[in-house]
Amino acid sequence: MDASTRAATEESDRSEAVVECDRVTRRYERGGGGGWFSFGDGGDDRPTVTALEDVSLAIERGEFVGLSGPSGSGKSTLIHLLSGLDAPTEGTVTLAGEEVSSLSQKQLTRLRLEQVGIVFQRFHLLPSLSARANVALPLVERGLGKSERREEAADLLERVGLGDRQDHRPGEMSGGEQQRVAVARALAGDPLVVFADEPTGELDTDTGGVILDLLGDLAEDRAVVLASHDEQALDRTDRVIRLRDGQVKDD
Ligand code: ADP
């Protein structure tokens, strides 16, 4: 392949959707649904909650996308579906070119491990492990050897500005530092898409700003999806998808 063909191929790779959903609906059964009773033709008397209804969207590499909407509008449900943690009731989700419903549980677990990073509001770090060991955890599941894991985790901590805090435990770090460790962990394995669900919800404005800058930088060579209520945080994104009552109201 000559240089111009390679450049054109790289360009077209960059513009392809890393994650998309087509006419996705997610209903939950109220009260867990025992399944022993029948509701005939599925009319309106079904005891279900429609968390998302007929949602279609595509997110491309290089995009920093905000996901907003009031509490209960379906943001978490959408993130769970797009990250392959949950399956739609109707419609399809395609992650890194693979239609999620066509995969076995094992294939889906591997795809998630390789292509998806998630950052949570409350960091979800293991308190007894050092920053480096927390970041290295997903690399254990990816089958990397001990020295490779140490090296990659150290590089990732360096990338989020915590090169000098490798051996510190979460309890010895501020909220903002812990969230940076969580961002480094989400990057382990170089995923195509990072989902951040209210990542600044526990942080003050300045500290939250550092995390948002970091997430914006990460979107240069992958996609980053930021679910947030905070309009100032959403202002930093390239595009905002607004949900209301389980539907896309603006994109
Ligand atoms: P958001 O993240 O925007 O607050 P969610 O996706 O959590 O919204 O919820 C959307 C709707 O789906 C809400 O009405 C919520 O109560 C309902 N819901 C979410 N998860 C479940 C569940 N596991 N079982 C039943 N209803 C659920």
UniProtKB/TrEMBL annotation:
Keywords: ATP-binding, Nucleotide-binding, Plasmid, Transport
Gene Ontology CC annotation, any one: membrane protein complex
One of the record's GO molecular function terms: transmembrane transporter activity
The organism's place on the tree of life at top rank: Archaea
Domain ABC transporter, residue spans: 19-251
InterPro entries linked to this entry: AAA+_ATPase (IPR003593), ABC_transporter-like_ATP-bd (IPR003439), ABC_transporter-like_CS (IPR017871), ABC_transpr_LolD-like (IPR015854), MacB-like_ATP-bd (IPR017911), P-loop_NTPase (IPR027417)
Keyword Transport: yes
PANTHER family linked: ABC TRANSPORTER ABCH.1, IMPORT ATP-BINDING PROTEIN
Protein name in the entry: ABC transporter ATP-binding protein
